# Entry
Amino acid sequence: QVQLVESGGGLVQAGGSLRLSCAASGSIFTINAMNWYRQGPGKQRELVAVITSGGSTNYADSVKGRFTISRDNAKNTVYLQMNSLKPEDTAVYYCNALVFTTVIGGSNYWGQGTQVTVSS
# Structure
């Protein structure tokens, strides 16, 4: 009943910027934490950034100072502003969220992913 759809990926030169968006839709009561993961070629999926329902954030060391996660609760949307991009940031980026569809029930959902490619 819930779907997450990412957008904003693309090809960018090293040092450039991209802004990813992830919109949740469906039967949503409330959304807890929203997260961004990424998976580079031949690599395990890794957690990039987290934002709680109250707006507290955490980042992987590799992106601190360059990436900013934010959310618009009214739109059920999370964003990832990526600045000073490096070739090492090349990956498929996935949105993830714990979504409660009722006051007592929730599940973890994943988006389909959006490709980010950073050229040197």
Observations:
- The two ends are 41 Å apart (CA to CA).
- The CA atoms of residues 3 and 92 lie 18 Å apart.
- The mean pLDDT is 96.
